[in-house]
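Complex record, two chains
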Amino acid sequence: MSDLKYWIALSMLPDVGPIRARNLLEVFSTPEQIFNAREKELVSVEGIGANRAKNIRAFKAWDEVRKQMEVMESKKMRAVHIGESIYPEMLKETADPPVVLYVKGDPHPQDRYAVGIVGSRRPSLYGISVAEKLSEDLASMGFTVVSGMARGIDSLSHNGALKTGGRTIAVLGSGIDVPYPPENKGLMEKIAASGFVVSEFPPGTPPDKENFPRRNRLISGLSLGVLVIEATADSGSLITARYAIEQGREVFSVPGNVTSPASEGTNDLIKKGAVLTRNAEDIVAELAPVLKGFIKVKDKVKIEVTDEEKQLCDLLSGDPKQIDLISRESGLPTSRVLGLLLGLELKGAVKQLTGKRFYLA
Amino acid sequence: MSDLKYWIALSMLPDVGPIRARNLLEVFSTPEQIFNAREKELVSVEGIGANRAKNIRAFKAWDEVRKQMEVMESKKMRAVHIGESIYPEMLKETADPPVVLYVKGDPHPQDRYAVGIVGSRRPSLYGISVAEKLSEDLASMGFTVVSGMARGIDSLSHNGALKTGGRTIAVLGSGIDVPYPPENKGLMEKIAASGFVVSEFPPGTPPDKENFPRRNRLISGLSLGVLVIEATADSGSLITARYAIEQGREVFSVPGNVTSPASEGTNDLIKKGAVLTRNAEDIVAELAPVLKGFIKVKDKVKIEVTDEEKQLCDLLSGDPKQIDLISRESGLPTSRVLGLLLGLELKGAVKQLTGKRFYLA
């Protein structure tokens, strides 16, 4: 732990963000060596000019760093640096992971299978019910639910995960000792006990407006994909979706009535290529290649068919059969058989090949 | 007109559908020559075996053909054969256009710019309001609205087109002298006067269940694209969408709440690649390459409103709201609110649905 103070100092350097910090680490291996380096060595690092090199040499806020470490100790928080194995894996794979994360609770390797759920702070009744259902379903399947602890969809999603005994992560735009919104203090404690609360802002940071886009970047960065439940046309959730795309993560969006302003943003995302999402299974299906069997959908439900449809199914097998033959064998006119088969195709019971050949799905 | 009887006879031949009829016409040029051909000549046509050739030679139902022609004359209907310039152009471009169409009303070349609108026979309030709005908007842009005159979305769509003075086409699964459902007799007369009613089934044909998939094929065949407003997972509208894809026509689908069974089919269509459709502009944007400037989106003009009108507009959205609620929310008496809303409707800022429900235009 002795080098943690250098990691925190590195994260506090003015004008040195995650990317420049990584450049420095590539040259100097440890943060301690960065602070012991000569100005000439520092200037040679990509993105570090004369001014930044001077700032690093002149760094004097060690008292502040020590105070922060004491505060964290007393409040049972910790700083996790990017060199630690406990640092969230998915976030580490993004282009600009923060050098230090402030954490309350316990990150776990299975949090790799995380889905971000975001949306309106003032959801409709529809948005509320979908957020509750999807967060519960995803958490009970084994996904960690990531959100921003804001009012509305965020809080509903954390609560849904907690309700099923699943894991959840809250990403804050303030310090992790500054619950925001204030009424979510109790929720924050529960999240810390069933996952973790995380921020890239040091303890004591107020929830300034400009912190939230950066916060959103972490929500998507921690997740395999981001699910937007409801969003007006100018919702901040759309910024999170945007980050997800930049980070190569999936965007899931729940469609809604075109007459509802709360679904304008979500319908628009679908039109632009987001995965139309009706239920948790839609998410699992899309993420299957990266889930590697860690999370699976339960067995398909039985398909209900009418007597007439059943009669046709009995004539079919896995082997494609031409419609004229099916018509003859069933004693029904071709047009009627075609109608029934198309209905069965829509139910997912039958599949069609060219030349009007059908087989059991 | 003397050869019309041969066209009708050709359409009546047992086991000779549109594709075999076309093969015969390619060899014999006119229907009359088909009926004068020798069996040996007929057998050589693709798809015409010994049995069908015999049936053609043995065709004796000329009395029935004549009777049909008399019925049509007396009821102001007509049979339009595929060789006529009045035969609908878009339908002619499909793989299997009917040889003869029975028509009441006047087909027009501008019907080439047609959109099929289909959906549930038992729509939700949401489906009703979207069908009303989209059919009115599309018709007033200059699109001909094609539908199946069924209960629910179909009837709403025809009525929406009629309300704006636009053109509309009803495709029946019965003869065009057999209104179905019966309560739509009056609607049918209006459609015949502002477009046309069409069927591939001869006059007197009852609305048998097996006719409807074939009817659906004509709805999509007459249209540049088919718009599905609401559809349950097993809705017949999905068959129409399926035909549209086979015919190379566009499929448009209106998203809806994932909790609504009436939107299951439409959301599924979008997931499978249908164009997510929020308004008429989405349709125009997608069809732009084939519309060749015939139909354009109007520029929105700025509407001047008074302070009081502005107050009401702020309470409204695209979602229809009942007048009592608007009155309560605004603190103004219902009569005053109604007056203001009607003024706004005249200015084009607000639209009204049945049941005194209002939404922003």
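Note: Chain B has a mean pLDDT of 92.
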